[in-house]
UniProtKB/TrEMBL annotation, chains A, B:
Family, as annotated: Belongs to the SLC41A transporter family.
Pfam families in the record: MgtE, MgtE_N
Membrane-spanning parts: 283-303, 309-336, 357-379, 385-410, 422-445
Coiled coil location: none
Record's subcellular location: Membrane
Keywords: Magnesium, Membrane, Transmembrane, Transmembrane helix, Transport
PANTHER family: MAGNESIUM TRANSPORTER MGTE, SLC41A_MGTE INTEGRAL MEMBRANE DOMAIN-CONTAINING PROTEIN
Membrane topology qualifier: Multi-pass membrane protein
UniProt source species: Paraglaciecola arctica BSs20135
Record GO terms (molecular function): monoatomic cation transmembrane transporter activity
GO cellular component, as recorded: membrane
Entry keyword annotation includes Iron: no
Name of the molecule in the record: Magnesium transporter
Amino acid sequence: MSEVLPDRIEEVISQSDLYSETSDTATVLAQADEVELALLLESLPIQERIILWQTIPDHKKLDVLIEMRSDPRAVLVSATEPEQWDVLFTDIDAEDLLELADSLPQELFERAYTALDRLQKQYYTEADQYPEEQIGHWISHDYLVLPINAKVRDGLRLIRREMPRHTDVIFLINRSGHFSEAVPIAKLHVLPEHLHLTDVSLDDFPIISAVEEGQLVAKEVLLSGFGALPVVDENEKLIGRIDVTTAAELMQEYYEGQIMASAGMDEDEDLFSPVRKSAKGRAIWLGINLLTAFVASAFIGMFEATIQQVVALAVLMPVVASMGGIAGSQTLTLIIRGLALKQVTSANVGALLSKEFKVGGLNGVIWAVVIGVVALLWFNDPLLGLVIGIAIFLNIIAAALAGVFVPVILDKYKIDPALSGSVILTTVTDIVGFVAFLGLGTVFLL
Amino acid sequence: MSEVLPDRIEEVISQSDLYSETSDTATVLAQADEVELALLLESLPIQERIILWQTIPDHKKLDVLIEMRSDPRAVLVSATEPEQWDVLFTDIDAEDLLELADSLPQELFERAYTALDRLQKQYYTEADQYPEEQIGHWISHDYLVLPINAKVRDGLRLIRREMPRHTDVIFLINRSGHFSEAVPIAKLHVLPEHLHLTDVSLDDFPIISAVEEGQLVAKEVLLSGFGALPVVDENEKLIGRIDVTTAAELMQEYYEGQIMASAGMDEDEDLFSPVRKSAKGRAIWLGINLLTAFVASAFIGMFEATIQQVVALAVLMPVVASMGGIAGSQTLTLIIRGLALKQVTSANVGALLSKEFKVGGLNGVIWAVVIGVVALLWFNDPLLGLVIGIAIFLNIIAAALAGVFVPVILDKYKIDPALSGSVILTTVTDIVGFVAFLGLGTVFLL
């Protein structure tokens, strides 16, 4: 059903009558929901994206913008006529604005903020106190709440009036607004109306603190078995909730962010960002890596005289570097995941180091022998085989140790190891590898 | 609340009285849910893991095993006494067994299967027809269902009897068991009891086909705004549902799988797998990468004579290889995400290629100049600067094109680009880089 759109992106794009409102395309678009439209818009080159944007009915536009990643969204924000915004902002609420704020120029942000009613303004200010990394920034205010002295009949009255998505419990708060208990809605139907809700509330219902890290909370909400969990401020006051859909969006953003970070990009990267913007964003990462490559070169440069006499060393350098880099990235990837899951702590890092050291030792010996023999046969030089074998062994061991230490130390200093871990790691393995290989070559082969 | 455990892993592990049931540790463990226990067990070295496992009450053990990744789980399966399994399998159902099946030796699997009642056996067989990649494998059978001629009063009666987690609608089926409509439970409370449910059902409720790909369905369920979506077989018969918690687990496994694949590992990798097993698993990936490194070496070997005369070429080789590899991995990562989101199709691949070509061209020119100047100053040789500049430019362009083509072609042949994309890509950039650099060096510098 709702899968119809992604499968037809191809068709839609290739149709030349994209902007005729009577076309087939228009029919497809009318059926699409905001998530699908957002994905479709992101997948289009900029000109086509703007054309399609203009055919989307105004009442859908705000929801579509909210679903989009911020880079591709920015293109559409600039392409929207100033007079259109009042229509778009008609029904905007605090959550919408929190999501959009970064993409709006100051003047537009102010128009949107003005369009909020008093309560939404208060919600906005409250959530905006928390940075984007903290879950307090992403709370919603659609939930069912009653005072702790409420009865089953009050609960029934409440659920007859409204029922926000993913609502399976009613939150109970005390006089100061502190979260107290949660009552499963399913129970309301089978209990006498005069019973107190506190008599049927759940023990130990999970509570989220607004300052907790977004992705950890997301996982907790998703695995809790409940549709949403309550969020409290530092005084235990109930300020909102996180439901499974919001949690899923946070989780997806987190993982996509991790994957993009490994290539020095971020989750908001646009498939079709303007060439200059894209080139600039990537240039920084290329520059950082260039510095580390020059460092490796500098170390090689120390052995120019050796290379001149034994050119085979130059030929085999990529093998030494590659084996260290790959072995290190395996350990690194495993440890980064362990850190994210809070499974790697100071209590088990010693045991991990010892295990990775042994794995590295075993693979080091195996590949040292294999590569040593290949080098011997290729260049008909047993000493060269010995030299590369020892270098490979040392580099794989160094890779294993760096694969544990680098992410653990970065994490300790609150630096995301998914972003910078592999640059630092390959710098280590390049240097160890080249110095060991060329150094031993200088000793044994000259 | 339920966050208590991960934070205390450290404490728990470091306590020497881990296996005294009267200790603090025992108290902490008693409060922990199965997800937390699974995470904790995975984070322990094997001996400690087995000791802790033995202190977990039998009635929790099956649920804990189900939450674990399969490699660390296998350790505990072998450490469990044969006579214990009958207790563990007491309440096993089809979903549990589908999750565990791969970790159980044949004999244990048969005991578990025998413990299922007739209905659960049928569920098992039904779901097991679908491979793990398809959503049909992961369906659950806890949902509310009524015939299409049912009335509001039937709905109310049903929800008073049972209310599975994440249930916000009742599914309606026709006489042949085909899914027909979904009725929001919230509406039942406000409608006359004699009304037909079909009069208040939702239009266009999303339906999942059992053969759809797990991770795509997971996203759809999570973003649908509903607690669960119905799954139908190829005859449109309702066979189960996927709720948001199952969807979240599938999504997490998918993303972790992508991240681990980039280092040639899989999502089930154990932090503390036995050294030999771990070394063996990683050796394959090291071997594949070694082959590509030898290919690069072979190309360098073609230019031995040149290197001997201009050793600076050997010194600068890592710079050429590194810039190509990094630029390529940026494009690759962006395209892999686009493919996963179904945003990259044959309709826009041309436009993407053209954009990446331009981005590569721009960054190629910039870094060619920077690196050319550095080389000139370092080795005081303008021709060397020219040679490396041209090689860098060509390699960044090649990287951009390979970054688009490699994943698109792999995807077309159903090979996961997250696993093999970067090996192939760096092989391309290594060869292009070395041949361009050393080849131009041979022409201009000899």
